[in-house]
Design brief:
By secondary structure, the protein is α/β, with parallel strands linked by helices. The chain contains ten helices and 15 strands. Strand 2 and strand 3 form a beta hairpin. Helix 6 packs parallel to helix 7 and helix 8 crosses helix 9.
Length: about 350
């Protein structure tokens, strides 16, 4: 098969040198963009153009347009190298390359204007709370909220929009876990890059062309419970696995965590209810499960290219039995340390509203 060589760009690193644990040659025409350590995302639309994000928004790449057929071929190649397949019967796929590069492909005509290829590039260094603090991540909410949540084994739900830093914050928090603890992560595509000596990463498996052999997050969570975890983490809850996670966190597995897409704290309750419905949970059972399972909600945002911990909340049950999120204000002061204490005091924060969260 004819290989499309990546163009040489002045100042580009040698393409044989891997970035983030992968071979840049695999990305062919896109290799110089993947090699650029300023780039966080590379987006391709077949026959239309290529865009990059260097942390300040999208910019079109001048003079680089991949034809629809070339984009389709490259998508298939990259997905296959990640151990999955994308074709007419399975037109969408998500895979991991190396140490956390995520490749997502949607073939035309499902992607109406041409095959769409999205490449998410993590930073070369594994995230730490110290580096995040240096970048200004904790200007709006103090770092001590996160420190105490980890050390006091709080169950945490990290929320935010796409690209806001949910995975980065979660990985940095897990890097603070004592080295004698065993962390088991469950992800659809393994993106968590955790600087910790004892991490077992479980990754979902796509079914084969005959529809057999698939392993979803629900099954992997059940397997994780049998693996003597000290902390159980779901990289991203997008479906019925929310039932398995809340059940695990409600049966003595402290210090766990998960992430959920939500644009703001006010959207979290509705998002969790929708996920619960996929698992066959009604609004009221889901409210009781989630409010009991999670001690803190940490909401992250990205504004003008700057990521920050924007708000802290706690889950509760309102008088009608539905899930609600109460905003929490970070304030100085000493606090208690029992797991079953109210979330706000345990994390060094004071609630600004009512809500029946986890109690003693």
């Amino acid at each position: 098969m004819h290989r499309h060589r990546a163009p040489f760009l002045p100042g580009s690193p040698r393409l044989a040198q891997g970035r983030r644990g992968t071979s840049l040659i695999d990305f062919e025409e896109l290799a110089p963009l993947v090699a650029d350590r300023r780039v966080t995302d590379v987006l391709v639309l077949g026959g239309r153009g290529v865009w990059t994000d260097r942390g300040t928004g999208l910019d079109v790449v001048p003079g680089l347009v991949l034809s629809e057929q070339r984009t389709r071929d490259l998508a298939r190649e990259l997905v296959a190298r990640g151990g999955r397949h994308v074709d007419e019967s399975t037109p969408c796929a998500d895979v991991r390359h190396g140490d956390g590069i995520r490749v997502h492909a949607v073939l035309a005509p499902v992607s109406v204007h041409g095959t769409a290829l999205s490449i998410r590039l993590p930073e070369d260094e594994r995230p730490t709370i110290d580096r995040m603090a240096d970048s200004g991540f904790f200007q709006r909410v103090p770092r001590r909220v996160v420190d105490r949540a980890v050390h006091e084994r709080r169950n945490v739900l990290v929320t935010g929009a796409t690209g806001s830093g949910k995975t980065t914050l979660l990985a940095a928090m897990l890097a603070m876990v004592p080295p004698d603890e065993r962390i088991i992560t469950v992800e659809d595509v393994a993106e968590l890059r955790i600087d910790h000596p004892h991490v077992v990463a479980l990754e979902a498996r796509q079914a084969n062309a005959e529809g057999a052999g698939g392993l979803g997050l629900e099954r992997l969570l059940r397997e994780a419970l049998r693996m003597r975890p000290d902390r159980i983490v779901v990289g991203e809850c997008r479906g019925p696995e929310i039932r398995e996670l809340t059940s695990a966190l409600n049966t003595g597995h402290d210090g766990g965590a998960g992430t959920v897409h939500a644009n703001g704290l006010t959207d979290v309750a509705a998002r969790l209810e929708a996920l619960g419905a996929l698992a066959g949970l009604g609004a009221e059972p889901l409210a009781r499960q989630a409010a009991s399972a999670f001690d803190l909600v940490l909401h992250v945002e990205r504004r003008h290219g700057v990521r920050a911990l924007a708000a802290v909340g706690r889950l509760g049950v309102d008088p009608s039995g539905r899930l609600e999120v109460t905003t929490v204000d970070a304030v100085p002061g000493t606090v208690g340390s029992g797991r079953r204490a109210r979330v706000a005091p345990a994390a060094g924060v004071t609630a600004t509203g009512a809500g029946a969260g986890r109690s003693a």
